[in-house]
Design brief:
The complex is a heterodimer of chains A (140) and B (85). With 140 residues, chain A is mostly helical. Helix content of chain A is 45%, strand content 9%. Chain B starts with a helix and ends with a helix. The chains are: A mainly alpha (140), B mainly alpha (85).
């Protein structure tokens, strides 16, 4: 009986179940993410939300600050003041009747909603790619 | 301009910002009592007051305005300084 020699160690990649990679080449996770809509438009939308929530000093803009009032504003509210000063509602929304003031106050909530949506999307995306074997790990 | 007229105009402007025709007192604090939005003070009240009375108030002077009465006094002072009071 010839000697059996040394049995090579099990390689989870080399010795994986046959047929896993017999189909079309699996897309990279980045491509999968783009296919799911996480592209340039989404990036711009999130950038706009983040930029709109940036606090700006009223003093730096040459605006008066009354006692007890916040010394900061946001770009959305300031934009409305400069470009559409007459954009006001006959009722108050979120404590103001200025359209852009309300939008500026709503903006962090939009950001929170997008963050929750992104968290959900990333979670389902990773879960999906892992279940399909798309995810690559180091060494593969 | 009579102080009653100034008061009436200031009340109108504040009621318009609040979207509420509630009765106001001269002693009402703009932030503490009326809870006017911070940006509304800077972006609505100040320009509306200046436009209504055709005055220009240095921004430092707004830093001492707590109540409606302070607004009225500030307007009166500037109207008198400009010769309109």
């Amino acid at each position: 009986v010839p000697p059996s020699g040394v049995v090579p160690a099990f390689d989870p990649v080399e010795d994986r179940e046959p047929g896993v990679h017999l189909g079309a080449e699996a897309p990279a996770i980045e491509q999968l993410a783009l296919e799911r809509g996480n592209g340039l438009g989404d990036l711009l939308a999130r950038g706009a939300v983040a930029a709109g929530a940036t606090p700006i000093s009223k003093a730096a803009l040459g605006l008066p600050v009354l006692p007890g009032a916040s010394a900061y504003t946001n770009p959305i509210s300031y934009f409305g003041f400069k470009v559409f000063p007459g954009a006001r509602l006959p009722f108050q929304v979120l404590g103001t009747n200025r359209v852009f003031g309300a939008l500026g106050r709503l903006n962090p909530w939009i950001g929170g909603g997008l963050l929750a949506y992104d968290t959900y999307s990333v979670g389902t995306c990773v879960s999906e790619c892992m279940s399909r074997g798309y995810c690559q790990t180091e060494g593969q | 301009m009579k102080v009653e007229i100034v008061q009436s105009k200031v009340f109108d402007i504040i009621q318009e910002i609040l979207c509420d025709r509630r009765s106001l007192l001269l002693s009402d604090r703009l932030v503490g009592d009326l809870r006017i939005d911070s940006d509304d003070l800077s972006f609505s009240l100040v320009p509306d007051i200046e436009q209504a009375f055709s005055i220009r108030v240095p921004i430092e002077e707004w830093g001492h305005v707590y109540t409606i009465e302070d607004v009225v006094n500030l307007v009166q002072r500037h109207l008198q300084a400009s010769g309109s009071g």
